[in-house]
UniProtKB/TrEMBL annotation:
Record has Glycoprotein as a keyword: yes
Keywords for this protein: ATP-binding, Glycoprotein, Kinase, Membrane, Nucleotide-binding, Serine/threonine-protein kinase, Signal, Transferase, Transmembrane, Transmembrane helix
Topology of the protein relative to the lipid bilayer: Single-pass type I membrane protein
Domain Malectin-like, first and last residues per copy: 41-395
The keyword Transcription belongs to this UniProt entry's keyword annotation: no
Subcellular location: Membrane
Taxon lineage: Eukaryota, Viridiplantae, Streptophyta, Embryophyta, Tracheophyta
Stretches the record annotates as Disordered: 474-528
Gene source species: Fraxinus pennsylvanica
Family matches, as Pfam families: Malectin_like
Main location per the UniProt record: membrane
Position of the signal peptide: 1-30
Protein name: Malectin-like domain-containing protein
Length: 542
């Protein structure tokens, strides 16, 4: 992948008008067809189609991807207060772990979306289910807890899949069970997250993002309406920002028609659809007094993790170029100073985003994540500041977990697990005693001529020199990735490379139909952002 740092490029002006027209065209028709597109409606007797282009296959069609030795339990209810029919049925896994394994046709970013709703049934109280969800490398949910929040929820993750097979594992606690209502495992475009971002503190560049796994914690369409998966270019949900907006200052909504938003080089509607850039929060009465305040958003985060904060900007307020300069702060530290969008993008109403990695161990004094925008102190241009969109992703910790201190292999962030340490220590001690005992016994029975033989190893070796107890289960690691990443300079249409990556021996479980029906009623449009918020917050105890 091209690792050119984004952000400080200058726009060649002469052909701007033509290019704007070109990008307008592109913005309207940008489409991404995911090479891998598995949508499972677990426990459902027939497939479910919440919208035209998303078909969740039935449980029997999903079963061929499932390895599970326990009893097959499916539960469903005819109706409930849920945003989509995918929540009306669930599959329950007792005692045994359940493993869904997907064939990956093309390596790279993939969304994992896990949907949960505690369906009422006679035998299992799903609200008290206790389980873990992981992949071979990453822990997604360390301990599922739904008892405080008997609502529908979903969790979204983004992982860079480099193996030909990819598994999602549901692991019930010893005396409990696991459940799942729907699973999405869907390719995302390479350009979605670049390898490098800027580091807030200590200030500098951060590279290596492409090897991390992410969990979406907040995704806000600032100053605008909620956006449902059906209205997003990549099936994402965007909530409204106003519950995080500090009411202390006067900020106001501003919006323009989405079809005027342009996407310059390096930007794409796949990063965020035009409707995100077409609305913003700006300083109210910016021109009346001499405004001197910051607009502040506060969001709770678990400070044990590092976060990737993606800020979306688009100057939809200026009347002329080079008139708006402002500062962006994260937890009191300057994220961007003197941000001049029109120079960065070459025109007004052009999309721009920037990624900032926040090491939350540096900001413990301010527990919530705080994003602020405010005017520059210099007397340049109009005193205003704006923000159009905000995404906050949790980055996996050093043991590959997004849920807590334990990694998929049982290691912890403190070096090793408490339980693991004790168990391993005891095993080693026990092993040592057994070994010493065996050696002592052998010593007793040593051949009389042992001193004469060249080697005593043959009789002093352990009783059973077993082949190996550490036979690794080969999961079919990809030999190589000869995938050609779309160059960031190419137009923002990402089409699936015909024969890149892995050869396909399976058809995807379902295929996306790019035709969106404008008359389609959005599945969760009648839900408040509080409900959407519940999506991201319920499981991780934020
Ligand atoms: C995924 O990871 C591999 C191996 O580190 C890397 O070569 C590739 O560029 C990454 N893909 C993306 C989309 O970042
Ligand atoms: C902005 O618009 C949202 C609805 O989209 C509304 O709830 C909110 O109160 C508005 N905020 C301001 C500051 O006007
Ligand atoms: C805005 O916030 C930053 C960081 O918290 C602070 O340094 C700056 O003085 C604030 N600006 C105004 C005008 O209050
Ligand atoms: C985050 O800060 C902690 C404490 O200063 C430091 O140990 C750690 O290396 C930092 N992480 C990164 C990614 O810089
Ligand atoms: C996340 O996991 C990857 C792969 O295990 C690792 O290389 C990376 O350092 C982890 N990220 C952090 C911030 O520890
Ligand atoms: C989604 O898009 C359709 C048309 O494309 C529109 O009618 C509807 O209002 C949009 N819904 C939301 C929540 O943006």
């Amino acid at each position: 992948m091209e690792k050119t740092p984004r952000g400080h490029r200058l726009w060649p002006p002469p052909t701007a008008t033509l290019l704007v027209l070109f990008y307008l065209f592109v913005a309207t028709f940008a489409a991404f067809t995911p090479p891998d597109n598995y949508l499972f409606d677990c426990g459902a007797s027939s497939s479910t189609t919440p919208s035209n282009d998303r078909i969740f296959v039935s449980d029997s069609d999903a079963r061929k991807y499932l390895a599970y030795k326990g009893k097959d339990i499916q539960v469903s209810i005819p109706s409930a207060n849920v945003p989509s029919p995918i929540y009306l049925s669930a599959k329950i896994f007792e005692k045994e772990s359940a493993v869904y394994t997907f064939h990956v046709t093309q390596p790279g970013w993939h969304w994992i979306r896990l949907h949960f709703f505690p369906v009422q049934n006679t035998n299992h109280d799903l609200q008290n289910a206790m389980f873990k969800v992981k992949t071979d490398e990453f822990v997604l949910v360390q301990e599922f807890k739904n008892n405080e929040n008997p609502k529908w929820t979903f969790e979204e993750y983004l992982v860079n899949v480099t193996t030909e097979r990819f598994s999602i594992i549901f692991e019930p606690d010893a005396d409990s069970f696991a459940f799942i209502n729907a699973i999405e495992f869907v390719s995302a475009p390479d350009m979605l997250i670049q390898d490098s971002g800027s580091m807030l503190f200590p200030k500098g560049d951060y590279s290596g993002l492409s090897n991390n796994a992410f969990q979406t914690i907040y995704r806000l369409n600032v100053g605008g309406p909620i956006i449902t998966p059906e209205n997003d270019t990549l099936g994402r949900s965007w909530e409204s920002d106003h519950q995080y907006l500090d009411p202390g200052v006067t900020a106001s909504n501003v919006s323009v028609a989405p079809n005027i938003i342009a996407y310059p080089e390096g930007e794409s509607p796949l990063i965020a659809p035009p409707v995100v850039y077409a609305s913003a929060i700006e300083m109210a009465d910016a021109n009346v007094q001499v405004p001197n305040f910051n607009i502040t958003w506060k969001m709770d985060i678990d400070t044990a993790f590092t976060y990737l904060v993606r800020l979306h900007f688009c100057d939809i307020v200026s009347k002329s170029m080079n008139d708006l300069y402002f500062n962006v702060y994260i937890n009191g530290k300057a994220g961007v100073t003197g941000l001049d969008l029109s120079t960065l993008t070459g025109s007004l109403a052009s999309a721009y985003y920037t990624d900032i990695v926040v090491n939350s161990s540096m900001v413990t004094s301010l527990s919530p994540l705080t994003v602020q925008i405010g005017p520059m102190n210099e007397n340049t241009g109009t005193r205003n500041a704006l923000l159009n969109g905000l995404e906050v992703f949790r980055v996996n910790n050093s043991v590959g977990s997004l849920g807590g201190e334990f990694g998929a292999d049982g290691k912890t962030t403190n070096g090793a697990g408490k339980g693991t340490v004790a168990a391993v220590g005891f095993a080693m001690m026990f092993g040592a005693f057994v070994g010493l005992g065996a050696m002592a016994v052998k010593w007793q029975k040593r051949p009389q001529d042992w001193q004469k033989t060249k080697s005593f190893s043959s009789w002093l070796l352990p009783l059973h020199a077993t082949d190996s107890s550490f036979v690794s289960k080969s999961l079919g690691k990809a030999e190589e990735e000869n995938q050609t990443s779309p160059n960031s300079a190419s137009p923002p249409i990402v089409s699936p490379p015909a024969a890149a990556g892995f050869a396909s021996d399976h058809r995807p479980a379902s295929t996306a139909d790019e035709n969106r029906n404008p008359a389609e009623v959005p599945a969760i449009s009648n839900h408040s952002e509080t409900a959407i918020r519940a999506n991201f917050s319920a499981l991780s105890g934020r």
